[in-house]
Amino acid sequence: MQLDLKKGSRSYQLAILIVIIMAVFVVRLFYLQVIKHGYYVGLANNEQLKQLVIPAKRGEIYAMDGTSPVPVVLNETVYTVFADPKVITTSKEIIDTIQRVAGGNARPNLEGLLAKKESRYQILATKVTRKQAELMKNANLKGIGFQEESQRVYPEGQLAAQTLGFVNSEGKGQYGIEEALNDRLTGQDGLLQSVTDVSNVPLTIGNNNINKPAKNGDNVVMTVDRNIQAYSEKALAAGLARTKATNGSVMVMDPQSGKVLAMANLPTYSPAEFNKVQDAAAFNNSTITAPYEPGSDVKTLTMAVGLDKGVVGPNSTYNNTDSIKVEDRTISNATKGQTGNITFQHALNYSLNTGFVTVAERLGDGSNITLQARNTMYDYFHNKFGLGEKTGIELANEAKGTVISPTDEDGGAVRYSNMAFGQGLDVTMVQVCTAFSTIINGGTQYKPTVLAGTTNDDGSVFTPAPAKPAQSGVISPDASNTIRIMVHDARSAFYASSDRKGYYIGGKTGTSQTLENGKYVDDQTVGTYLGYGGDSQATPKYVIMVQVSGKHMNLAGNTDAMPIFTDISNWMIDYMKLQPKG
Amino acid sequence: MQTAGRLSSRVSTTAREIVQRRHRPDYQIALYMGLLMLLGLIVMYAIGPQRAHVLNNAYGTDYYTSMYFFIKQTVSLMLALATFIALALIPYKYLKKYAVKILFAGLGTCVLLAIMGNLMHLPLAQCSLGACRWFDLGPLGSLQPAELLKFGLLVFTAGFLGMRLQQGKVNDLHRTLIPLGALMLLAAILVIGIQKDMGTGIAMVAIFASMLMVAGVSRKVGVVLLGTALALGVLMIIIAPHRIERIITFLDGDTNDSMTVDDANYHITHAKIAIGSGGAFGVGIGNSVQATGYLPEAINDSVFAIMGETFGFVGLTVILMLFTALLLRLLKVADHLPDPWMKLAVAGVFGWLGSHVILNVAAMIGVFPLTGITLPLLSFGGTSMIFIAGALGLAFQLSRYTVHGSLNKESNYENPSSRRGLGRPRYASRGSTPRA
User: Fold this and answer.
1) Residue where a domain terminates, one of A106, A137, A155
2) Residue A51 resides in a domain
């Protein structure tokens, strides 16, 4: 621009001044708009971009009631009542209303909370029902608001508490199926994101607007049968009351599918009030989380291996003494005096350790538990039966347990002689039940499962989960048939009178020592009982495993665990409407 | 000096003849003004509906239609253009003649406003927080008498100072500086003191200052005047707590961005958010989000920030360039006007426009405290637009009397001693010396 201003004139000076000021402005604008652009876009988005999370409904959990699913975990909407003490003028009225309507859900010392004028948010009551919230809203109290949230409700109360788990205050599943299937149950929250004007009205400006609907979580159906579960819990509680044991677990499994029908654990808790639990041990589903030394139950598995390998038969005999020497150790029997040439059935009946050490020896060269014997046992126990490995059941915190391999320096003949009668290995009940089911069902291994399938949103249509792959021929059908008969005979030898006539029931006791810090303690044994039942010799309908224990308590399989098995077994016959045969 | 004097003497004779003969006005003044007005209208079209929506929401009415602000701005623009044309056509000699009356009208309406508002609390005076700045004329809109006062000061001072200039008494304490200082003080009391309008007050000081500067006030006097003005400014700040708050806010700078509505920093933070989020090229016309109620005074004082969001760095730079061009044109016209009245009047228009632009933009970009002043030609608001257009119309008319070539009388005015031998009054033949 040609200005013709005389250099040094006042107009010239003013022109210079203006140009300098404008140049400063442009530099400042460059700083604000180009260099700090991201920062200010951030500030702008902070206030302009409103995000509304559309919460996904958490999936409900169903149990089976015979053949149809029934809900055991549902959702309900509850409200948190909060106040802005700064704007409240009618404290007295508010306190009266909330205490009258919310009762025990009102927080203590409401006067004190409302007196905190400088704070803008005080929670006055929690977990208020919709009806209560409406009553409060209708009172037209100024300065109080309601925040909606969803909480779990348990129509069956404490039923299967450890199997279900609970949902913590952050909405995350903890323990049980809630934790294991948390992602499926949670679903995917939807998101509504929009630029809004100052009064939060969405605008169509910009390209940051998102409208993603929520994807509700799956409703999952457990294989657990609500009636079997309820009865198992009842029977277990009664059994613990009889024996004064403090802890107990029961697992009921369908041996023909691996489906878990019940998992009962005591002590238990109420998932609705999980936050009142003092000892978190109550959350654990011991049937899958607590490896223990299984004891004599495992003799059925050792026998099955011997039968499958053809090294022993039910009527083959060996010379029993009250103890047997393996390398530098001497292994004694709990029951003495059954000496002489006896059958392995006899050894199973009396749970003679020596008999099963002998089976292990026969898997080797006949008198030593050779590497070949140990490899064979490891192959069956670990690789085929799945002991010492997670089963993959759909529950949180499953433990692996330990089965020491023959190549380990601790995996010598002494170790394997012990393993033959159930010591020197750590396993979980679900592993034992699965292995036991395999050897009595004809030799097919089904993966244990608690997940029966899913339902649609309102729970009316049940879609079964695809069957997990099963491994047949784990042991031969003949060996399976033989061990099933042997286990039946072992029970019948002493407890035939406990079972109802016309049904085919088998079982094995176990009394195992407890390890504490790697050492056996003398004053504490765990009593277990592992058995099956059904209406025919060929096809067992259920497997039941019972375990009872207590601090400083010597509990035995036969006196303490077995009656609980018998109780549940006899009830199962009625529940499953099994008809007596010959 | 002697050589220069002789040269001047010879040229001044020519100048008088050229002054008498009008030529084409400086159309660039109209061009820049028109472009800026158009930009303002476009932005008003884009954000007016949002502003209307926000107001309807706030007051729970549907009084403001979506075209309300656009239509009002269009009407204001029409009136402004009419005023521009009127001031461009009405011979300036009438302004010279009625300068005192105009000044008294400005002072009088301000006093009237103070009486009606501050003393009688009549609804005709629009007040907020004890500051009454507007007459509420109902359906006709509202009128800000301070604008009239500004115009009055401009035409009066052009005459008074022009006369002293011719007398060579620009730096005379008793005859020039004290009377002018008294006038300035009176205006300051009315505008800054009573109306609590620091922005308009500063603009008036800037008008005075530009005229004094171009009139050639000595550096010594300039420094004294500047010092006095600063001292008074500090006094004004001390007596009004809201100004201290604004200063503190300003001193917090960019480090204390506030998202809380009732926070002192909220306005300036949001001006910066609007400007900063515009980026290099802006979000585009109609896509301003800050105008939907986040940024206060979005269509008035903050329109520069909204334009920053809309047009980006490039757009704002163009707007500032348009203002700069317009201001430089005014300086050029002032520089080339031989008549002191004309020269000082245009210098006053320069001070008026320049101070508004600088105060407004500086506040929006966070380099000067908020003063609550409109951005000329762009902000919504009739009074300010009409008066600034009128002032530009006057400058446009006067641009017809410029003298080009090597002529530059300014150095002579600066040094009265050099004029003594040349005989005066130099412009006596035009008979237009104001009689104050």
Assistant:
1) A155
2) no
**Same-domain check for residues A243 and A120:** no
Residue of B nearest to A26 (CA): B317
Strand A49-54, strand A190-195: pairing: antiparallel
Contacts of A198 in chain B (CB under 8 A): 54, 292-294
Per the listing, tokens 């020197």 go with A424
Tell me the C-alpha distance between A156 and A153, whole Å: 9
Q: Is A550 helix (H, G, I), strand (E, B) or coil?
A: coil
Q: How many CA atoms lie within 13 A of A546 on its CB side?
A: 33
- A124 shares its domain with A271: no
Is the Cβ of A35 closer than 8 Å to some Cβ of chain B? Answer: no
Interface subset of A 237-276, CB within 8 angstroms of B:
none
Q: Are residues A334 and A418 in the same domain?
A: yes
For residue A85, the domain's CATH number is 3.90.1310.10
Q: Do B276 and A41 touch (CB under 8 A)?
A: yes
Separation of alpha carbons A221 and A61, rounded Å: 6
User: Which domain range does residue A115 map to?
Assistant: 74-155
Please report whether residue A56 resides in a domain: no
pLDDT tens for each residue of chain A, 582 residues long: 667 777 778 888 889 999 999 999 999 999 989 988 988 888 888 888 877 788 888 999 999 999 999 999 999 888 888 888 877 888 888 888 888 888 888 888 888 888 887 777 888 888 888 888 888 888 877 888 888 888 899 999 999 999 999 999 888 999 999 999 999 999 888 888 888 777 777 777 766 777 888 889 999 999 999 999 999 999 999 999 999 999 999 999 999 999 999 999 999 999 999 988 988 889 999 999 999 999 999 999 999 999 999 999 888 999 999 899 888 888 888 888 888 999 999 999 999 999 999 999 999 998 899 999 999 999 999 999 999 999 999 999 999 999 999 999 989 999 999 999 999 999 999 999 999 999 999 999 999 999 999 998 888 899 998 888 899 999 999 999 999 999 999 999 998 888 888 999 999 999 888 877 777 888 889 999 999 999 999 999 999 999 999 988 888 888 899 999 999 999 999 999 999 986
- Across the interface, whether the CB atoms of A4 and B275 are under 8 A apart is answered no
On whether both A107 and A242 belong to a single domain, the answer is: no
Q: Is B45 left (phi over 0), alpha (psi -120 to 50) or beta?
A: alpha
- Beta carbons within 8 Å of B37's beta carbon, 6+ residues apart: B77, B80, B81, B377, B378
Does the CB of A199 have a partner CB in chain B at under 8 Å? yes
Q: How far is CA B381 from CA B74, B378, B391, in A?
A: 10, 9, 16
Tell me which of A102, A125, A155 is where a domain ends: A155
SS3 content of chain B, % helix, strand, coil (to 5): 70, 5, 25
| Of the partner residues A1, A30, A40, the one whose CB lies closest to the CB of residue B273 | A40
Burial of A498 (0-12, 13-18, 19+ CB in 10 A): middle
Chain A: give the shortest CA distance to residue B362, in Å: 7
Q: How many domains does chain A have?
A: 2
A273 in the same domain as A137:
no
| Inter-chain CB proximity A197 and B292 less than 8 Å | yes
Residue of B nearest to A204 (CA): B287
A199 inside domain: no
Nearest-angstrom CA–CA distance, B234 and A94: 51
Provide, as residue numbers in chain A, all residues whose Cβ is less than 8 Å from the Cβ of B366.
Answer: 28, 32
Flag whether A190 is in a domain.
no
- CB under 8 Å to B423, separation ≥6 — which residues? none
Burial class (CB in 10 A: 0-12, 13-18, 19+), A155: exposed
User: Are A241 and A145 found together in one domain?
Assistant: no
Phi, psi at residue B174, to the nearest 5°? Answer: -80, -40
Query: Residues B59, B65, B66, B68: what is their CA dihedral angle, to the nearest 10 degrees?
Result: -100
